[in-house]
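PROTEIN DESIGN WORKSHEET
SECTION A - STRUCTURE
LENGTH: 285
TOKENS:
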């Protein structure tokens, strides 16, 4: 009887574990789909200005540095950064995203600039189809924090980066005001999807004078409308925040050397990305 009871308990535990795993996978898939559908809206309506975006890109890279290099634009969105890399002598640029709407926008930009060295494909950052050490440069501007597991995404980006290669990560900053932003976001994402664009425009109208008067600095990346930023900030289904030292420590433990650091990309600390550009050690096994 004792043996039967033990076996029964094991079976119950196994069944519970399997159900838990299945539920977690379903939740992850559903969240991924929500993010995909969200950016089908955002990056088909809003396309950042090329010249303004290029000036921001030049804070971290130059044409000489990227000439002939292979580049992964992870979470490419409209593909604007992929286009900038390709247009500045990169050898091979691969832009990936889970949003079909975003990829259509990226392909239209590729046609507009008549580029042959940029390609776009639908891929999940958690499970990249590329071999180890495939790219000289990995660019992930404001993307890993929208995945269901940011550190798993970072690990995948590190895996496909060549030894001696550069990675750029722009990540949302966690501050004392983060909980307020999260309360607002969790309320707004429950509103009907068809109202999101209109709500972001209304919020932008009322917040424009507030931003003008109280901003701490100018944005490092220009060429984006306030309504677009509000939509991306308050209506996105998934977002994570980190302290800069968390990401810095993680990269250094993985054998990276920090080469460039921008503490805040936005007008306010609580609505900013911090940005690290880091180089992978040539001695990593």
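SECTION B - SEQUENCE
RESIDUE ASSIGNMENT:
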């Amino acid at each position: 009887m004792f043996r039967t009871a033990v076996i029964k308990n094991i079976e119950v535990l196994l069944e519970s574990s399997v159900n838990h795993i299945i539920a977690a996978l379903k939740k992850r898939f559903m969240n991924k789909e929500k993010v995909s559908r969200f950016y089908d809206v955002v990056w088909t309506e809003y396309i950042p200005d090329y010249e303004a975006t290029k000036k921001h890109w030049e804070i971290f890279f130059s044409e000489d540095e990227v000439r002939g290099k292979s580049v992964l634009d992870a979470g490419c969105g409209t593909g604007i950064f992929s286009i900038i890399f390709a247009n500045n002598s990169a050898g091979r640029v691969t832009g990936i995203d889970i949003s079909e709407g975003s990829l259509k926008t990226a392909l239209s930009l590729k046609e507009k600039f008549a580029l042959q060295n940029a390609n776009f494909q639908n891929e999940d950052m958690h499970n990249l189809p590329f071999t180890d050490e495939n790219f000289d440069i990995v660019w992930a501007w404001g993307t890993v924090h929208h995945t269901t597991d940011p550190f798993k995404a970072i690990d995948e980006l590190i895996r496909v980066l060549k030894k001696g290669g550069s990675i750029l990560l722009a990540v949302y900053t966690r501050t004392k005001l983060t909980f307020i932003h999260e309360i607002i976001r969790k309320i707004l994402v429950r509103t009907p999807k068809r109202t999101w664009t209109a709500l972001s425009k209304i919020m932008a109208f009322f917040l424009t004078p507030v931003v003008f008067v109280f901003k701490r600095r100018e944005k490092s990346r220009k060429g984006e409308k306030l309504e677009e930023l509000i939509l991306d900030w308050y209506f996105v289904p998934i977002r994570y925040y980190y302290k800069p030292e968390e990401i810095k420590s993680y990269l250094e433990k993985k054998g990276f050397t920090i080469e460039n650091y921008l503490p805040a990309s936005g007008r306010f600390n609580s609505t900013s990305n911090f940005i690290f550009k880091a180089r992978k050690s040539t001695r990593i096994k």
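SECTION C - NOTES
Confidence is low (pLDDT under 50) at residues 14-30.
The beta strands are 70-74, 92-97, 118-122, 135-141, 161-172, 256-262, 273-280.
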